[in-house]
Amino acid sequence: MNWPTAAGSDSRPDPDSEYWDERQETRPPGERRDEIIEKIGEQVRYAYDNSEFYREFYSDVDVDPRNITSFEEFEQLPILSSDDIKQEQKEHPPFGRFLCIDEEDIARIYGTSGTTGRPKVFGIGQDDWDRIGEWHAQILWSVGLRPDDRVIITSPFIQYLGSWGALAGVDHLGCTTFPFGAGMEGQTEQAVEWIADLQPDALYGTPSYALYLGETAEERGHDPAEDFDFKVMFFSGEPGASVPSTRRQIETMFDCEVVDQGSMAEMTPWMSNSGCRHLENGMHVWNDIVYTELLDPDTEESLEYGAEGVPTYTHLERTSQPMIRYWSGDITTWERHDETDCECGRTYPTLPKGIYGRADDMLVIRGKNIFPSQIEDQLHALDDYGDEFRIVVEREGALDSLQLVVEVADDAETGPDEFHDLVRQEIKSEVGVTPDVTVVKQGELDRTQFKADRVKDKRELAIDV
Ligand code: 8LE
């Protein structure tokens, strides 16, 4: 087998074709697994031969990292965590000894975009970047994009790999790209006018930004459905596009298809989790592009279809900074392709509810496990919801309290008291804990131009909301 595959092909299918590569996308899963394990073998051997980090990391394993031939052997390799990356990059700055190419051969440097702690650094070689563009183009084809489409990218062009990864795919597919960005003062108002003038066919961003954009458009007298006329919006970065009521709200507000995508920046090509134009909700797992396991959060054992666990990712053709068995810390469930009600005919597993949270975002309040995305789902389903909320968790004596600050819509038909009681009741029936609810006017809470940050857990942090 040729490993890695040659990058740089410009060939594209016929625009009427459903598939970029029909054989690859629709083959029997068993056949695909044979290819995946071969690629895993090559990837692990390559990392072992070229990275001092992996040689050290695998020094105690009972299998030969230069000759992995089965999934059973592969599953004996240790799990790599985000802390391992941070520690390694601290000790061997800036890239860590994951880097398997010479520093001078790095074509692009990206990083994590968080504001606290040492950022993680990603060095990507040109071949890897070219392959990322091709894979993203292939996946965007399944989303319904075609070369004659015009696509606006409305997430920040910072170190964030979401924007750049989307751009790489859209460029490779041959669309007209409009890398607009986000995050500057006044940029959302400008985005509204640019979109109304230029009429892009598709938009990429975060779901919370889409709602903010739609709200801003309405404030400026536009109807986003009529005046923008998007065919499809594709999202990554946070839950939302697979939170049923949020998804419906975006679909209705913009009258277009919504597609959820995204794994993690480390795992770029991060579009390897992606909905397609036929999927009702959730994402297919393109596991011959990035191999994905679902592991038990406690035992790290591999889980069957139907179970809930942590997606753990392995690059299959990465020469610059490969990640092998990388623990995402996210929570999801998965199912076999033929259990999914999707007409597309692809034979990948599916995450029917998307990624609904990070294990460390899960709030445990009075013994109940609560994901912020569950609360989001309930609120978006209320007609008079004003589109933004905050969660505050506090310890009062021995008991934890769940406090919600919720906006009521300007044109609400219910009064604030009635809305308050409705929110209390709906949330209690969903999560089993009665929240203290504060109702505020629409627009009172800050909107995000990037990823929403809606939770303050004051049990751990003594900070003001
Ligand atoms: C639910 C995938 C990308 C580049 O958009 C991104 O956000 O990468 P990043 O900044 O490394 O953040 C990764 C984390 O964002 C994931 O671990 C997960 O918690 C969250 N995330 C990304 N996409 C989704 C998501 N959560 N649904 C998604 N579609």
From TrEMBL:
Signal peptide: none
Segments traversing the membrane: none
Domain AMP-dependent ligase C-terminal: 367-459
Source superkingdom: Archaea
Stated name of the protein: AMP-binding protein
Compositional bias segments (type: Basic and acidic residues): 11-35
Residues in AMP-dependent synthetase/ligase domain copies: 84-309
